[in-house]
Amino acid sequence: MTLSESPQNTLFLKKLAAIVGVENVLASIEDRLAYAYDATPMRENVPIAAVRPTSVEHVQALMRLANAENFVVVPRGSGTGLSGGSIPVERSIVMLFPAWKRILEIDQENLTAWVEPGVITADLHAAVEAQGLFYPPDPGSMKVCTIGGNVAENSGGLRGLKYGVTKDYVMGLEVVLPTGELLRVGNKCVKDVAGFSFKELFIGSEGSLGIFTKILLQLIPKPAAAKTLLALYDDMQKAAGTVSAIIAEKIIPCTLEFLDATTIRCVEDFAHVGLPTDAEALLLIEVDGHPAAVADEFEKVQTICTKHGAREVKVAKDAAEADKLKTARRAAFSALARVRPTTILEDVTVPRSQIANMLQRIRDASKKHNVTFGNFGHFGDGNLHPTCLTDERDRDEIHRVEKAFEEIFLAAIDLGGTITGEHGVGLSKKRFLEKVAGPTGVEVMRKIKQVFDPNNVLNAGKIFDPKPRCEAPLPAAATGF
Amino acid sequence: MTLSESPQNTLFLKKLAAIVGVENVLASIEDRLAYAYDATPMRENVPIAAVRPTSVEHVQALMRLANAENFVVVPRGSGTGLSGGSIPVERSIVMLFPAWKRILEIDQENLTAWVEPGVITADLHAAVEAQGLFYPPDPGSMKVCTIGGNVAENSGGLRGLKYGVTKDYVMGLEVVLPTGELLRVGNKCVKDVAGFSFKELFIGSEGSLGIFTKILLQLIPKPAAAKTLLALYDDMQKAAGTVSAIIAEKIIPCTLEFLDATTIRCVEDFAHVGLPTDAEALLLIEVDGHPAAVADEFEKVQTICTKHGAREVKVAKDAAEADKLKTARRAAFSALARVRPTTILEDVTVPRSQIANMLQRIRDASKKHNVTFGNFGHFGDGNLHPTCLTDERDRDEIHRVEKAFEEIFLAAIDLGGTITGEHGVGLSKKRFLEKVAGPTGVEVMRKIKQVFDPNNVLNAGKIFDPKPRCEAPLPAAATGF
């Protein structure tokens, strides 16, 4: 701990140290700068300090102190979020969870796992798969991100179409409320209707309704087989037609991803996986499940790809080859990020039937505002990642980028979709929330925030701005007094 | 409309008629008695009237009137609930939905359906299955119950183990809030993280947080094949061992149901399906999915049943025979209900690994209090239906029944389970809610109710009692004034 200069600050840091121990308060300027930002471009804010609680009681005491002393606690997993969820706000401390990395239990009989919030997602995958079980959510950052962060953001991934998202696997939570109270919600029962189902409020609350100290996850049997292919197209419409035909055939692949022309070229340039750089669209398709079902469905998928105009279909012979094909998709963000200094990865989502229209609207906005987008994402579940390649130092370009994104968000809403499929609202999309959730919806959210966090001390100012205490302006006459 | 006598009542009924039309206000004593009860035994209460809104505006206007005139609206589907969710309370009107029976859209491309709340569950099954699609939730009352009621109660059914419950299929809601405001939440996107996920609050809110006027459901492809068997045992422990072994083999049947000895005998006596009346336990198992996977898994299940001591395994040769086998399970409640004048069907739920222990605790309570239980239910997901065969006219016996149920509920909580898996809390289990949800959990629920329904006009008094306005008793000294 390095104490800052003012006596007030010194006293404050001592109070934090009295709770978590002096070794767990990080207040040097280097530490504070390190936690000033996350993976969200163009946003940062320096916190007063970062703290590392090592017990539930620490978390509770810190929240009570926050209420007493009126500061904000910003919980942070690995900081891979893309909407600013873990970026500090005014008068805030960042809360870190390096001491919370234990998988506490894998229950073979009930198909559940109890984990601490700091467990890395890929570590959980490995641990349960070693026992023949499966935890489907696989966000792009799974090698570094934490389960606590995944629950806070309701993370998705490449397997969402068939297996759903994080919310579909959270059975229970031990959570410290913003007021410091400890709440346990959920259990190992598949069915439970005892009172309102408010567990879901915490999932995707972007760290603003509670701090998870223990998480109960549902597991499923590991699919016995999987087969993977890449299909390449000269025309995005043909790729879209393929996807519709697969669903019409009543096949639900676990993975159904796409890259557009820009992304294909960047990926090939970066990862040299042998993609033809003149292709206009690429689909990555994986079918999993019982071996006999996989064999049959995979053959049908291959036929559909060819019938709908794929110019080439690459089939993975084994798991190693499948991994190689997946590299093309998993490398998309890194490949695009090399092209220009600033990369803005978005995640508008539309009903599956509207994807081709949505891509057209992105192209229109790109052309109109003269900005470059690479597009990739989850074709199967309508979750697109229009990724803008830009330079934050160029104010004029950034202004045009903002205009383009605004049109893209509004287009998604117009097509029956949403402004964010898996990244969250955070700081980045607050001003669009009311357009998608409606004024009544946002009002409900504000009131729910008020129920859990009356003093607005937990990740305040994320998702929506706090309402000013005085809701109506004073009447003109009254100002005379 | 038959107006009751007092001028005050006449005026009130006229106000209702001004909203929904005189033909849609049911106020004769016969009508009022008809809506005084639902399927919950030993509870009834006569409403002021029943009303049949025919538009969203009617529902909104009725809720505004309820707030203005301080009466309670009790929404009612088909009244099949078992916890008193649709039983009138003091100063209440019952709201009915016979005009809301349209399936508005089945979207083949996005695999969704928009329905009105009054659609009968089995009618939706038939409509989507005709298009090769599937809506899994299948509560016992599916031939008469409504989707609106299913969403309000978060209904389960026989396919919950593999396919989950109603909550897992609700993608969006159009809902009139208790204050009369109209709210739309959710959309056809598989992924959406724009703000707090509060849609789930309405699902299972037992008609107390909002009135559904339109429901968007997720559909899945209809499983291409299914195979069904009945296995009979001389010992419940052997049936439990079979279930554990099936899960350990990484097979998740869509149906995994059981009957105990008492239920087997009653079912045979009632339905004559050829069950041996000396069997101690029966499992009904259905595996569904891709034909090749079904063939393989079904063979494994058969082997496991035999290996774990089934004295007989009856395999259904075709769908008609499968239906016959399922009759044994579907007839359980009706069969038990014939034995004594009053049948109390409960739905305690425990983690799957605790089912054998839970059944022992039910036997203990039954013996201790000298009351008769038949047990059946969803072995796969831990959801048991201990069903008490009694006579409500025998006050002493009913007192013993209540004691036994109290012990059963507490045992379920003790084993890591819950007081209700699919029936809800309603009026019947209010006093046990805090034991399972904890005081903080119930406090959260109360505050959420307050957010949506500040005047407590929508199905008030269900799930938990409203808190008295003056929370603490007056101090003794104050009573002197």
Can you walk me through this structure?
The structure is a homodimer of 481-residue chains. Chain A has 481 residues and is α+β, with helices and mostly antiparallel strands. Chain A has four domains: 150 residues, Uridine Diphospho-n-acetylenolpyruvylglucosamine Reductase, domain 2; 119 residues, Uridine Diphospho-n-acetylenolpyruvylglucosamine Reductase, domain 3, CATH 3.30.465; 109 residues, 2-Layer Sandwich (Alpha-Beta Plaits), CATH 3.30.70.2190; 89 residues, 2-Layer Sandwich (Alpha-Beta Plaits), CATH 3.30.70. In chain A, 36% of the residues lie in helices and 19% in strands. In chain A, the strands form four sheets. Chain A has a seven-stranded antiparallel beta sheet, sandwiched between helices. The first copy, chain A, is globular, with a radius of gyration of 24 Å. Chains A and B meet through strand 9, helix 7, strand 11, helix 8 and helix 10 of A and strand 9, helix 7, strand 11, helix 8 and helix 10 of B.
